[in-house]
Structures are given as C-alpha cells and as structure tokens.
C-alpha cells in the first residue's frame, strides 16, 4: 500500500495535536488538516489553557490520569526548552481555595502537578471567606500562541491545511484512506452525536501584568489564570446553551467575583469578553469506526468530546488517537495484501 492518506477534521487543540502525533508515529503517512475554522476562531482559542483536569464520569480515573500525565510531561519539556515563549507555555503557581474542606483532599492529579500541598495559615489569610486551600504549580498554555506553534510544526513536517467545512465524513472517502474526527462541538452535527452537548463558557481576558499567581475557587466557577500577556477571568458553565454572544450582565458578574478574590483586579485594563462552547460528553469519544457504503469502506478514528478539559489531556488523547490510526493502517495493509493474494 502507498503512503496512507490521513485527513484530520478540526484545527482546535485536539485536531492539531492529533495531526502532530500521527505524523510523529507514522512518518510515512500523508496528513492533511481540514477545518472550517482555524486559530484564532476556535473554542480552543477562548480557553484559559490551564492544566487542571476536569473529571469525565464515563472514563476510568487511571486512564484520565495517564492522559493528564502525558500532557503535563510533554508541556513541561517544552517549558524547559528554548521553544517555551514561542509555544506560549509556562509554569504557573497558585491556589485553589474552598469555603469548606473538599470531599476529596487529594485529587487524582495531585502527584502529577508540582509541589501539591495544603495552603498554610499565612496564605489563607489572603482569602478571608475561605476555610481551606491547596497550593500547587501547574502548566498554562497561552492558547492562540500554542495553536499557532502547533500549526507551524505541522507545516514544517509537510502537513497540508485547508479551510473546508465537512458536511459528512463519507464525502472524504474518495480522497483519503483514514479520517480522524476532531470536530469538537461540531461533531454534534457532523456525526449526529446526541451524547455531545455544549457547556457555554464566558470569560474575560484582561491586562493586569501584576497578577502572577493563579487563584481558583474550588467550585471551578470563579478563577483568575495569569498568562504571558493577559489574565483570564472566569467564568460560567451553561449546559445546553449554544449562544456565542457575550452577555454584558454575566461579564460584570465575572469581574465582580474575580475582584472579590483578588481586589487589585479593579485596576485591570483592556477588558475583552470571549465565549466558547465546551464540547461535553460523559467521556471523550476515542474510538475506531468503519463507515461503509456497499463494498466501499472508510476507517474513522474519533477524538472529540473533551468538555472543560481539552488542554489538560490533549497530548494523551492525541497519542491514543494516533495509536488507533496505526491500527487502521495495519488493517488496511492486511486487507490490501489479502486482496493481492
Ligand atoms: P475546538 O477548539 O472547538 O476545535 C474544533 C475544530 O473543528 C474547529 O477548528 C472547528 O472549526 C472544526 N470543525 C467543527 N466542525 C467541523 C466540520 N463540520 N467541518 C470542518 N471542521 C469542523 N480546557 C482546559 O484543559 N483548561 C482550561 O483552562 C480550559 N478553559 C476553558 C475555558 C472556556 C471558557 C472554555 C469554553 C473552554 C475551556 N477549556 C479548558 C476546554 C477546552 O477549550 C476544550 O476542551 C478544547 O478547546 C476542545 O478542543 P477541540 O479541538 O476539541 O475543539
């Protein structure tokens, strides 16, 4: 069989990192990224890009931990290299604070992030409304910068990228041997997945360069995540809302909640409001499927449904998707040698 042609649908963090893993694990493949939107117009561009996992109820914890660990290790290596600033990757330390002690004192990811420990009394004095807290250091991606870095790496390895809306995966069967579906919330329409639903998130991106530590309310709703250029203030989680229009009342509420955690944010400037739809599911869909029409077949690998945690696990799930692509290639090679016999 000639070099297998692989199409990756989607150019968010999942599509780009999956394309990169496919190139790395199968250098003989010809990989093309097809997407109706590229950075800066994807959900991935809106994300805060913090590596704090979201829990997928339908996926075993050891699997989620492995995805997170692989992603953390990958980004940690970038943060320790000369690529760090171009890739928009850096370490950030800070606090997760709770009004009452959390059910889980040691989250499953506590030994993956660096220096996880309970906050000291002196640290807690900064947050008079909170009783308990955890301090740790994790990774943060400046999302648009990281996406551009991934695109640049892909182009350097010869990956083609085309602007194209795919209406049906089957339309790709005559051009490609394998299709990888990384369409995020777009998979709702593209493959009719009724288990996939949007969780709308609104955030503010502000200029406040004096804020250096992250602060996160343990309920996950209010957070302050400093990046290289801007600080992300969040947020909202609105299940089943498809609206991409910023809501001014919500923006004020987010700002007020964040100022009550970090009063110096009152001086923040250049406030921009962003909205994204988290592609949510009980579990990430990481799966092989074979589409067929009559005698014709098209192997597909799905990798979507990362909800609130796509950045936190992207490299781990991309590696798994690339492994599934490898299985598809082996199956195609098997059937083509069988056909010759
Ligand atoms: P997307 O970025 O939406 O990419 C999907 C791609 O598919 C796009 O390029 C789209 O154009 C393309 N596409 C869709 N349909 C089609 C089609 N039919 N044909 C062609 N192309 C198509 N995660 C974290 O880990 N940490 C965080 O701090 C964090 N903060 C967040 C804050 C907010 C406000 C939001 C909204 C999300 C946050 N997330 C965070 C979650 C994270 O953003 C998502 O899990 C992640 O971006 C999903 O990536 P994706 O590539 O699957 O989707």
Automatic annotation (TrEMBL):
- Subcellular location(s) of the protein: Cytoplasm, Cytosol; Peroxisome matrix
Q: Name one GO molecular function term.
A: D-aspartate oxidase activity
Q: Where is the FAD dependent oxidoreductase domain?
A: 5-324
Report the PROSITE patterns cross-referenced here. Answer: DAO
State the EC number(s).
Answer: 1.4.3.1
* Keyword hit for Flavoprotein: yes
Q: Which domain of life is it from?
A: Eukaryota
Q: Which reaction does it catalyse?
A: D-aspartate + O2 + H2O = oxaloacetate + H2O2 + NH4(+); D-glutamate + O2 + H2O = 2-oxoglutarate + H2O2 + NH4(+)
**Gene Ontology BP term (one):** L-aspartate catabolic process
Region forming the signal peptide = 1-19
GO CC terms? cytosol; peroxisomal matrix
Q: Which family does it belong to?
A: Belongs to the DAMOX/DASOX family.
Function per UniProt: Selectively catalyzes the oxidative deamination of acidic amino acids. Suppresses the level of D-aspartate in the brain, an amino acid that can act as an agonist for glutamate receptors. Protects the organism from the toxicity of D-amino acids. May also function in the intestine.
Query: By what name is this protein known?
Result: D-aspartate oxidase
The organism's taxonomic lineage, starting at the top: Eukaryota, Metazoa, Chordata, Craniata, Vertebrata
UniProt gene name: Ddo
